[in-house]
Each structure stands twice: as structure tokens, then as C-alpha cells.
Amino acid sequence: MSKPILEIKDLRTHFFTDRGEIPAVDGIDLYIQPGEVLGVVGESGCGKSVTSLSVLKLIPQPPGKIVSGSIVFKGKDIVPLKESEMRKIRGNSISMVFQEPMSSLNPLFTVGHQIGETIRLHRGKSHKEARIHTLDMLRKVGIASPDAILNEYPHRLSGGMRQRVMIAMSIACSPELLIADEPTTALDVTIQAQILDLIRRLNEEQGMAVMLITHDLGVVAEMCHRVAVMYAGKVVEEGSVHDIFKNPLHPYTQGLIQSVPRMSETRERLYSIPGNVPVLSMSLRGCRFAARCEHVMPRCLEAIPHLSQQEEGHSCRCWLYESTQEDAV
Amino acid sequence: MSETLLEVQHLKKYFPIQKGLWNKTHGHVKAVDDISFSVHKGETFGLVGESGCGKSTTGRALLRLIEPSEGKVFFEGKEITGLSAEGMRKQRRDMQIVFQDPYSSLDPRHSVQRILEEPLIVHGVTSRKERQQRIERLVEVVGLSRSHLHRYPHQFSGGQRQRIGIARALALQPKLIVADEPVSALDVSIQSQVINLLQDLQSEFGLTYIFIAHDLSVVKHICDRVAVMYLGRIVEIADKEKLYADPQHPYTQALLSAVPEPDPDVKPKRIILQGEVPSPANAPIGCAFNTRCPKVMDVCRTDRPPLRDTGEGHSTACHLYTGAAEVV
To answer: Would you list the domain boundaries of chain A?
Structure first.
């Protein structure tokens, strides 16, 4: 196995609010291999976006703070890095695509200016060189006449176009890791298909690793090699895309997969997980999913199970699978 | 064939584009451009399409929450497009709507009790005791408890708020509910709870639904018949099984092929459409889909294809099916 390009260990990102300390990301471990597409799935509030923002250290501080843990990118822990050092990494070797391209593009600058800026800053190119490079990038993301949109402002473009511009900007410096946070959620299915196709092509052709954050299981099944399922600030299951969809272990993953309607089959009734996601707080005890779980046992309410490996490359955080290894730490 | 509850004939909704000092009208946004369909009693009729295709405008124009520009709507054989404002208000007892965003459609200053009581007062349930009984029954039916009645919308989660929205729509025991993207804002696990609830209510109260959505897998699960819209027009109507097994219109084919399936072993044969949806202010001449259609012909750029019956209740508006008879 090659060395992971990104390794997150026991990351805790907490928010300090009027209502107390909120453990949005509560001790997660993740890794991404070079050239791999890792899917991070979960419902709103499970901490998937906070995880991705933590990797780029974009957590608003205060109220947020990375309390503990390490984020090792290419052998170097980036948690203690200064802002000026982070700036050399962002948009250069790690870049990010956000859900809403309208609010992440600057409305006051033209598309060409914004993409060009990244190239000038990180690659030290002149305006003229940056312009040529920008046109290349726009062509690469499937914009047929890049000259025409170079001088346009973001509000003049459609949602799909803006997301392409966002992607062109994020890949302009050939990053080794692209973090895509719900890149297609705001788009229509036919445009979503175009954008996913583009991300897959970049992954295959340039070997760019992708961390794809989404709540859409269809997108995950189609795009990812490996998947981490998050619930209430913790990774509850992690494995290959095949493991997760064909042999899910954690009751939450099982419920999630069963509750999605599918195109290829007809069911009378959908499975539904009862109840709601718990409100995060420091005083939560036991397994976060216990209140909604069909298999809940007394010990689930007392202690948090460990994320333990069940099969090669397939781990799960559930007491159901830990009866035999009582001594596991 | 079962009884028709709602019939829509040549419905149009044009929004004027006004510019300049005197608000002169410079053309129209044709949000809904001449559509006709009928909904049978007890069925779930799906309206699908991408953003801007006019599906929500259609839903609102049916209830006259926005006035249609042209066309007729019949409910139980009675034309409701000609009714006075007062007549329409009475008519809405039978026709209700559930909105996408349950937060912005509930008044934050009203308790659940008041939200559910208001329609009863407006529609003349004068006995306080009867109102209370009906409210208590309503919250139970949608899976909330009596203790929730004195809370306010912000104290509920998204799924619970959508249940309140559904309870409010049910308060007057309507015959038809227009559900406008009722589960799009919800998380997967909550979405399935609300879908199951809608189905339970349908069988319990014999409701008819018009289900507006962009998520094709949800529509496949819940609907009996589906109409696909593109740029304000209906391009295809069919029974669910037929539409999903044998889509005829090139747009429907591309749309269905674009849905990612939550199964890593299924590798869809995807038709990736080029380009973007044109603006409804400036729709192409002829077939609205001619700018993106992989099978475009010369006639598509000049003549708008009518909806033609291609057999067994399946209709398609496409020049590829010229042999079939026109509908309406």
C-alpha cells in the first residue's frame, strides 16, 4: 500500500457558542491514497463539511477551533502551520470546490481575473501567461468558447457554468488533492452528470485525489473508490464502495441505504430510520445512534464503541461487532 | 378508467418582463406554455423537470395562488378558473398545498395549535370543542404528539416542520393536495419517513396528490402517472412503469439516464446533454428542446410538436413520433 497523501488522526473541531461547546467533529480518522476518490457521506450536521474546512484550516475562529488531532498532508502536519504557510497550500496543492459557486466566487471580479489570480500567486506567472493558462483551464472543464466568458462576471453565468469556473480555478495549479463539498447539490441532474463526468476525468487523467463530500448515495456509488459514513461528528463505518453498499455493517449505514428509493426497483414502502439526529453536545454519552437503533443494547448507552476493522479495509463503529474482542482499545 | 378529479386545458402563465421608466413590457417569460393534463381520483400524479421548467408555477396556477394567463382548470367537472376570489377561497377547502421549505411556510409567531386552528376557523368550524378534537386528531395522524401543540415552528426539526405543513393541508379534509417538492429539503433518513407518511395518509383519506419534484427516484417510488416538463411545456406523460421502462422523448431519456443509482454495480449508459437549458424568456422556436437534442431534425427548429398519443396512455411531444394521433 502506498503512503496516503492525506491522513487525518483523531481530529476534533469544536465550536464554542453561547449554548456551550459543540463537538462538530469528534475524533475522526480518515486517509486518502494518491489518485483515490474518497466519499464522505452523512446527513446535515454530521460534521462532514467541518471536516473538509478543517483540512484547509478555514474554520471561522472563533467560534470554531481545532481542539486536537493531526492532519498530515504529504508527511507534514498542517495543524500547527501559520496562516501564511497555509496560504501556500490552499489552491495550490489542496484546493476546494464549494456547494454554492455564487457565494464562493467574488462578484466584483471577472472570471478571468479570479482564475488568473490563483495562477499568478502560486506559479508566479505574468498576467499574459496567466491568461493563456486560464483559457486552457476553461477549455479543460468543457467550456466551448472560453474567450467569451473570460471577461464575464459570475452573476452572468448559469449555475452549471459557475461550478465549472469554480472547478477550473481549483485545478489551475494542478492540486494533488481536491476537496469537493457537495459540488453538485445545487445543480440539476443533467448538469450534475456533466460535472461528475468532469471530476472523474480529472481524477483519472491527472491522478488527482478527490475527497467528495455529499449526502447523495447515488453520487457516492458512482464516483468513489472508498467511503466513510459519518454520523453526529464521528465516522461510523469505512470501507470500499462495494463493502458499504453491498455489505453495510453499521445499523445506520444499513438504514440509510435501505431508505433511498431506487430507479431500478419498485418497493411498496421505504424503510425509514425512526427519530431524528441528536443535538450535539459535550454531555452525549454512548453510541450517538443508540436512540434510533433497532439493535440497541444496554452497553450502547454507556460507552462509545471503537472504530474497529471487521474485514480487510472495512471498519465499523458498533458494539454488535465487538463482542469477541472485548480487550480492543 | 377511473374518474377525473382535475382537468387542465391549455394552461399558460406568462410573466411580463418590464423595463425602462414606464415599465414598458418587453416580451414575456413563458413559465408555463400551453399545457394540458388530467388527474384521476385517488392517484398520485407526478410533475417532474429541472429548475425553471415551470413545474412549481403549474402547481400554483392550478390553485390560483398565481393567476393563470390563459387556459381552464376544472375540478370535479366545475370550472374554477372563472370563480370569484370568494368562490375560490371556498373551493380551496378541497384543494390544498404543501410547500418545499416548511420553515418559510409556517408563521414563526404562531404556535402549532394556532397554525392548525386557523384554516378551521376560516372555513367555518365554529365549535371550539370540535376544532380541538380535530386538531388533536391531526397531530396524531401526522406522527406528532399533543404536547407539540403549544410549541413554535423554530422548536422543531425540518422533518417535524414538514409534518406540521402536511397537518395544516389536511385540516379541512381536502380531496386534492399539491405537494411542491415536499421532501427535497430533508435528509435521506427523514425523507423516507415523510414519503411513507404521505402514502399512509393517501390510503387512509383517499387523497389525490399532485407531486412536484425534481428527484426522479422519489417520483418513481410515489407516483402512479408522471408528466415530464421542459421549458414550460409537457414533453411526455405516461404511467410510471411505462415512462421509466420505455422513455420516448429524447429529453426524458437523457434525464432518466442522468440519475445516479445508489448501487456501485450499476453502470448507467449515460446520455450527457450538451449545453444548458435556454431561458424561458427566449425559448427556441419549434421544439423547446431542439438546442440540446441529440436527435434534432430540421422540422424541430420550425414546428412545435404537439402531444401525441403513442398508445396505452403514453403521450409524447416529439417529431420522432409523427405517426401517432394528437391529444386534445
So the answer is: 6-92+177-285, 94-172
A329 pLDDT tier (thresholds 50, 70, 90): very low
What is the residue-averaged pLDDT of chain B? 90
A196-212 pLDDT, tens digit each: 988 998 899 989 999 99
Which chain A residues are closer than 8 Å to B270 by Cβ? 193, 197
Domains and CATH numbers, chain B: 4-94+172-261+268-326 (3.40.50.300)
Asked whether the ipTM of the predicted complex exceeds the cut of 0.85, the reply is: no
Taking residues A256-284, report their average pLDDT: 84
Tell me how far apart the alpha carbons of residues A81 and A88 are, in angstroms, rounded to a whole number. Answer: 11
Q: How confident is the model at residue B51 (pLDDT cuts 50, 70, 90)?
A: confident
Domain A6-92+177-285 is found in CATH 3.40.50.300: yes
**B 246-275 residues inside an 8 A Cβ radius of A:** 254-266, 268, 270, 272-273
The DSSP output letter for A90 is B
Classify B175 as helix, strand or coil.
coil
User: Cα torsion for B199, B203, B209, B215, to the nearest 10°?
Assistant: 20
**Interface check B312 vs A, CB under 8 A:** no
d(CA A241, CA A221): 6
DSSP letter string over B266-288? ------PPPS-PPPGGGPPSSST
Integer Cα distance of A238 and A24 in angstroms? 19
